[in-house]
Amino acid sequence: MIKECYKDDLERLAEREWMVQNQLIGRGITDEMVINSMLIVPRHKYVMEDKQEYAYYDSALEIESGQTISQPYIVALMAQALKLKSIDKVLEIGTGSGYSAAILSRMAMNIYTIERHEGLAHLAKDRFRSQGYDNIAVQVGDGTLGWPEKAPFDAILVTAGGPVIPDSLINQLAIGGRLVIPVGDKGEQILIRVKKTLTGELIEENLGLVRFVPLIGTEGWGESNIKNVKPC
To answer: Distance between CA 230 and CA 232 in Å, rounded?
Structure first.
């Protein structure tokens, strides 16, 4: 079932197989690239050492800098919603532990990921390097403004909930591109997929209710307006 392997990929493989079968396939994840990537990437390498025994549980986990890594199903759901092709260029907003970017990197050609916490960005880069994932570029900055120098992007994934869809991200989406983002208040959001048609029209699709940490930035929530929430 695994199409390619990197060092350490086989470590705790049985747990990943259980996770994929019960938490993903059992809930309707059907994209073979997503399933294969979730089998390949060792999730326990993207959490703190004292949390590694829980890495394949059906839950979000605390990571460094007071942030979280989403539960496996949510990572898979969002990755599947992007409808990626192997030649795609992808922008991710919110690197976090690096796990989601690692998953995307097994599916698409180039991944660009932005993290506002410098410490998290450096940790993620170290993890990518140790796993041999060399098609991921990391930048520290305001993710709501995107990465204009690398635009346009075939797909954009936002891993935090914003009050609206940032205009900067819409402008950096390629024709035919897909953007997946949680939008709503600071406690609960709707997961939205936006597709930019050949005429530049935006088509929005509701993918269901989710709960993410706030999207902080110029086109998101301000630091003074956030409150503690429990993410997916």
So the answer is: 7
Whether 97 is a known active-site residue: answer no
User: Is residue 96 within 8 Å of residue 67, measured between CB atoms?
Assistant: yes
Cis geometry, peptide bond prior to residue 152 (ω within 30 degrees of 0): yes
Asked if 200 and 175 touch (Cβ cutoff 8 Å), the reply is yes
Query: Is the distance from CB of 232 to CB of 74 less than 8 angstroms?
Result: yes
Neighbour count for residue 173 (Cβ, 10 Å):
24
* Lookup result for tokens 């954009």: 156
Q: In this structure, are residues 93 and 114 in contact, taking their beta carbons and an 8 Å threshold? A: yes
Are 111 and 92 in contact by the 8 Å Cβ rule? The answer is yes
> What are 96-107's pLDDT values in tens digits?
999 999 999 999
pTM above 0.85, yes or no: yes
Q: Which of 37, 65, 70, 105 is catalytic?
A: 70
